[in-house]
Design a protein that fits this description.
By secondary structure, this protein is mostly helical. Helix content is about 80%, strand content about 0%. The chain is flat and about 60 Å long.
Length: about 130
C-alpha cells in the first residue's frame, strides 16, 4: 500500500489498534534517527574511502568514531547542512529568474566545503593519506 492509498482511506481513531500506531511511531522514529546518523557520518566515510581506495575503509569504526566525537566535525557538518538547505530554498525561490541553478550549485559547494573542513579537522591522518 502506498502513502497516497493510505491517505485516501477513511479510518477513525478507533479503527486503528494501539499496537499499529505504536509500531508506526517506533518505526518512523527509528528510520529518522538512522538517516541522521548516516548523513552525519557520510563525509568521514567518503574521505576514508577516498584515502584508502577500498570500500571496507568507509566502514572503519575507528575512523568513524573519531570523527563522530570531534566537536569541529559536528559543527562543520551541521553548519554545512543548514547553510546548504537555506541556499537550496533560495534556489527554489530564484528558479523563475534563471539564477536558481547557480544558487543551487553554490549551495552544494558551500555544503561540501564545510564538510571537507570538518573532515580535515577531525581525522587529519586520513586527509593526509589521500
Amino acid at each position: 500500500m502506498t502513502v497516497a492509498g493510505a491517505s485516501q482511506l477513511s479510518l477513525s481513531a478507533g479503527d486503528v489498534p494501539f499496537t499499529v500506531s505504536f509500531g508506526f511511531a517506533l518505526g518512523s522514529t527509528t528510520s529518522l534517527l538512522l538517516a541522521v546518523v548516516f548523513v552525519y557520518l557520510l563525509p568521514a566515510a567518503l574521505a576514508n574511502y577516498l584515502a584508502r581506495r577500498q570500500l571496507r575503509a568507509a566502514f572503519d569504526l575507528d575512523v568513524l568514531r573519531r570523527a563522530a566525537v570531534h566537536g569541529g566535525y559536528f559543527y562543520d557538518v551541521l553548519v554545512g547542512v543548514v547553510a546548504g538547505s537555506l541556499l537550496l530554498v533560495a534556489a527554489r525561490a530564484t528558479a523563475p529568474f534563471a539564477v536558481g541553478f547557480f544558487v543551487a550549485f553554490y549551495g552544494e559547494l558551500v555544503t561540501v566545503a564545510f564538510w571537507s573542513r570538518g573532515v580535515s579537522r577531525a581525522i587529519p591522518d586520513v586527509v593526509d593519506a589521500a
